Amino acid sequence: MSNPPPSNLFYQTRLRRPVLARGEGVYLWDSAGRRYLDGSSGAMVSNIGHSNPAVLAAMRRQMDLSTFGYRLHFENEPAEALATRIAQRMPEGLDRVFFVSGGSEAVESCLKLARQYKLARGEGQRWKVISRFPSYHGSTLGALAVTGMSLMSAPFAPMLREMPKIPAPTCYLDRDGLSHEARGLRYARLLREEILAQGPETVLAFIMEPVGGASTGALVAPDSYYSEIRAICDEFGILLISDEVMSGAGRTGRYLAGEHWGLRPDIVALSKGFGAGYVPLGAMVADRLIAETVIDAGGFVHGHTYAGNPLACAAGLAVLDEIDRLDLIAAAARQGAALKGRLEGLMACYPFIGDVRGKGLLLAFELVADRETMEPLPTGLNAHLRLVDIAYEAGLIIYSRRTRGGRIGDHFLVCPPLIVSDSEIDEIMEKLDRALALFAAEAGL
Ligand code: PLP
């Protein structure tokens, strides 16, 4: 079988890709036996690599015991153990874990808990959640309302309660003579202005990705940004929701990306790296006081059937065990620094690479027409599609986006599993170099 069946609605015409046969470590094989280096961990998911034997063994053990028990009928040990384990690594006081099955569900849970908390405190007039543009927080309608990607939300405009957005801190595009840190403060203060414009008494929360994901291409703000955002939220009694769906579980070289700046959010959304591609798994982690206020006021009005099922949680526990056993958070920092240096090195050969950014193994590069002005490449080149296709042909998977309507152009995430070795980094670079040369020749750059 060379193509997915047409009855599979997930199948998109443009992505006429081969059929996946198997995976091992950083590699995937298609049904024709071709090997691909998974240079984006899927969608920044497969942090511990494919077919990890310890995780598969833990899943098999759990499958022999039970795979499902409805949460209103049973507690289950893997869920209890995983909640404790996640809470132990969170900032002080953030220790109430609510399981879901993915990133969008985690974000929905954060929004709903924030709202119920403010309701319980008699602040029912607060409902607006400010977010950033561009940003990605998920595809369900609530998460989409805070997502800053117009192409994704436009078809649903009449059904969405679109939330206010402030610009993401794209400091690297600014040519204003300010220092990097001064720019960080300027972007953070846009939140203050937006809160005042909206009416502080109506604002419930601010949600952001501490290190950006696909929408911005691993955008990192100046250090000054993070503490200023926290201070502004505190000033107006607004909850800070940190979307660590992509950046959590060690990908940036810390357990949570926010730890790089000592960020203390009120609620955190987690997913990708916790299930690591073995199971659909996500979690909301909330400040104890927030969660208990909601429980005391009658309980959290929210939930999904598959949430906290024993199989997903047993796999999640085994993933966290492997992250510790293989010291993968330190590896993300070490290999991330090496890979980032190598990507920066490509800038000498390819003047159309405008920026290399990110933390740990959440890394991206952006292609531009002019490095000085950071003018994006012409849309007609379709660089975000073409370079990915050329790399794919060379056996390297990378992840790309072009943020239309924003200032960020074609960007490419290079985010291999945290187990990536030195020689595998060599292979990524050799294939990427070849793909960039072919792309440059084709595009006349
Ligand atoms: N939040 C962030 C930061 C993400 O990167 C994603 C997915 O890419 C989501 C939320 C949504 O997660 P999911 O696709 O699992 O619903």
UniProtKB/TrEMBL annotation:
<dbReference type="InterPro" id="IPR005814">
    <property type="entry name" value="Aminotrans_3"/>
</dbReference>
<keyword id="KW-0032">Aminotransferase</keyword>
<dbReference type="InterPro" id="IPR015421">
    <property type="entry name" value="PyrdxlP-dep_Trfase_major"/>
</dbReference>
<protein>
    <submittedName>
        <fullName>Aspartate aminotransferase family protein</fullName>
    </submittedName>
</protein>
<dbReference type="GO" id="GO:0008483">
    <property type="term" value="F:transaminase activity"/>
</dbReference>
<comment type="similarity">
    <text>Belongs to the class-III pyridoxal-phosphate-dependent aminotransferase family.</text>
</comment>
<keyword id="KW-0808">Transferase</keyword>
<dbReference type="InterPro" id="IPR015422">
    <property type="entry name" value="PyrdxlP-dep_Trfase_small"/>
</dbReference>
<dbReference type="Pfam" id="PF00202">
    <property type="entry name" value="Aminotran_3"/>
</dbReference>
<keyword id="KW-0663">Pyridoxal phosphate</keyword>
<dbReference type="InterPro" id="IPR049704">
    <property type="entry name" value="Aminotrans_3_PPA_site"/>
</dbReference>
<dbReference type="InterPro" id="IPR015424">
    <property type="entry name" value="PyrdxlP-dep_Trfase"/>
</dbReference>
